[in-house]
Specification:
alpha+beta; 4-stranded antiparallel β-sheet; two-stranded parallel sheet; 12 helices; 13% strand; globular; binds iron/sulfur cluster
């Protein structure tokens, strides 16, 4: 089989496994990303995500992650769930309504690898999704899947409600052309809509101000001023306002369908949630990452602000 035939075969398998897109790029050092990454770290925009500052060379060069690595197969999987939650006052990012994508994507990437090994013999590989050592949006752009929007997310003409996964393999394949054109144009909706001004300049997010970071990655207590704007896990605002997401379709991936228990969860119930109830509703969802304590801390912080707003209103009456 030629390299070109292998690449076409991989893309067909990827479609069969439920990935909405697949592109392939050559393994090399992403030297043009070095300055951007170093500046971001020097500004401490990584907050307390110290792991982001470790192994910078590894992050820039996937060849250091897989011995003999030649190619990066990048896949996208849509997650936009159909339906609405019963929550009104509190918000949970849409990517977290179903089963944790780490399980779903890694399982399917392993199946993709098994097909390759079955057909072509020994193939060494490592699968990644949302893993610290890989610049996944950059490689997705290099694999021709989309452009990096001003909100710093990978965008396609169908929007940005998808997960990215990579299989780094030690075989040569035919490569896609990088996506060159940026279709953000003069739009600044994400920058304007971000309630905490976390997008400090196009494509640069200061994690310390980002609600997604604060509600998930940040451990510890919040200061009185920290505003989460109703979000208790993640934040979708800079995606919701993006005009390209008007074209997003609900996912067909069953695992990302919202759980019935989550769909019926009310504000009142969430405010008094017990640990066993948390385990039942959020087991194997991304919300496990922040844990019961983290989720309830986020709920309390929102309550604190709504009561402060109420006090202010009363003072103004
Ligand atoms: S996720 Fe929310 S807080 Fe973070 S940059 Fe986007 S809009 Fe701002
Ligand atoms: S909202 Fe506008 S500027 Fe921001 S990512 Fe979408 S298209 Fe680009």
């Amino acid at each position: 089989m030629t390299k070109s035939e292998k690449s076409s075969q991989i893309k067909q398998w990827a479609r069969e496994l439920g990935f909405s897109a697949c592109g392939i790029t050559r393994v090399r050092e992403a030297s043009e990303q070095r300055d951007h990454l170093i500046r971001w770290l020097e500004n401490n925009y990584n907050g307390r995500m110290e792991y982001m500052a470790r192994n910078v060379d590894k992050r820039l060069n996937p060849a250091q992650l897989v011995p003999g690595a030649r190619s990066i197969i990048v896949v996208l999987m849509d997650y936009l769930p159909a339906g609405r939650l019963s929550l009104r006052q509190y918000k949970i990012s849409r990517y977290a309504w179903g089963t944790d994508y780490h399980y779903v994507i890694k399982k399917r990437l392993r199946q993709l690898l098994e097909r390759m090994q079955h057909q072509w013999g020994q193939v060494q590989a490592r699968a990644f999704t949302d893993s610290a050592p890989v610049l996944e949006r950059y490689w997705a752009q290099q694999a021709g899947l989309g452009w990096i929007g001003k909100n710093s997310l990978l965008l396609t003409k169908q929007g940005s409600y998808f997960f990215i996964g990579e299989l780094i393999v030690d075989i040569e394949l035919e490569y896609d052309q990088p996506w060159e054109k940026n279709f953000c144009g003069t739009c600044t909706r994400c920058l304007d809509a971000c309630p905490t001004h976390a997008i400090v300049q196009p494509r640069v997010v200061d994690a310390r101000k980002c609600i997604s970071y604060l509600t998930i990655e940040y451990r510890g207590d919040f200061s009185a001023e920290t505003q989460l704007h109703g979000w208790v896990f993640g934040c979708d605002i800079c995606q919701q306002v993006c005009p390209w997401n008007r074209h997003a379709r609900p996912t067909a991936v069953e695992e990302f369908a919202p759980r019935p228990d989550l769909l019926s969860l009310t504000d009142k119930k969430l405010e008094s949630l017990t640990k066993p109830e948390f385990n039942k509703i959020f087991r194997h969802t991304p919300v496990e990452r922040t844990g019961y304590k983290g989720l309830m801390r986020n709920v309390r912080q929102n309550q604190r602000h709504s009561s402060m707003a109420g006090d202010k209103e009363r003072q103004n009456d």
